[in-house]
Amino acid sequence: MPRTADILLTALAPAIWGSSYIVATETLPSGHPITIAALRALPAGLLLLVFTRCLPPRAWLGRSFLLGSLNFALFWTLLFVAAYRLPGGVAATLGALQAMIVIFMARGWLGTPIRAGSVAAAATGVLGVALLLIGPDAALDPVGIAAGLGGAASMAAGTVLSRKWQPPVSALSFTAWQLTAGGLILLPFALILEPAMPPLTMTNVAGLVWLGLVGAAITYALWFRGVAKIEPGAVSMLGMMSPVTAVLLGWVVLGQALSPLQGLGAAIVLGSVWVGQLASRPTAGAETMRMVSAGAKTA
């Protein structure tokens, strides 16, 4: 039951991230992706720093900036590039490859065994996302494809390294360090590369508050908490909840059509996520060793 509760809490993060597309397109001005990413990360990170009153020690500054770059600055920038240059379905399908990348990165960096069931679940999940989102007229742009693959690799690396490097602080503090670092990295690029944003309306502010407070501060705290507690292959599979939520919100809120093929794709994604949790579940011996190790660290 504790593992199930951890999975459900962690799954809330990508499920809420699925709302980012509809919030961005319906409430925010277009043409300022890096600026919006900076406004999403930096205020949320600073707010969490004030709330937690926990600054990273000198030994963690480099790691915080590297993780902030991988999980936020680089990932969000490449995500926007892929979204602008590819149909949404193609971009999301490339992003779903993150689960597969995490499995192999975790083997190299954490020594986690590669389980056939996890690989099969990840591959099936990518197929489900493709059925859910890709249409027959999907265009393939080389730059967009490279950005989509780079974004998936960046988030995968950030997830695995966040598991490898666990500071002796709360998930909120760990999130605050990374968000602030990512926002500081994004800020100069936004000022140099993009035009000034128009005056913000109340709708714009509401969208930024949702993306920053809920879609970044709260959800990433849940995500990093899950990264510390759940096996890398299992937690990465939960990221596939995001496109499912995005499609369902488009259907419910915007009245977008949902075909039977898309329904099948959603069912395949949800099934693969469930199978991925089972396939990545540690054995009794491994779980005992993990609990003993955790108890030793606490002591």
From TrEMBL:
Residues 7-133, 144-274 form the EamA domain. Keywords: Membrane, Transmembrane, Transmembrane helix. GO terms for cellular component: membrane. It comes from the Bacteria. InterPro entries: AA-Vitamin_Transporters (IPR050638), EamA_dom (IPR000620), EmrE-like (IPR037185). The keyword Transmembrane helix applies. It is a multi-pass membrane protein. The chain crosses the membrane at residues 34-52, 64-84, 90-110, 117-136, 142-162, 174-193, 205-223, 235-254, 260-280. The keyword Transmembrane applies. It is found in: Membrane. Belongs to the EamA transporter family. This is Probable blue pigment (Indigoidine) exporter. It comes from Jannaschia seohaensis.
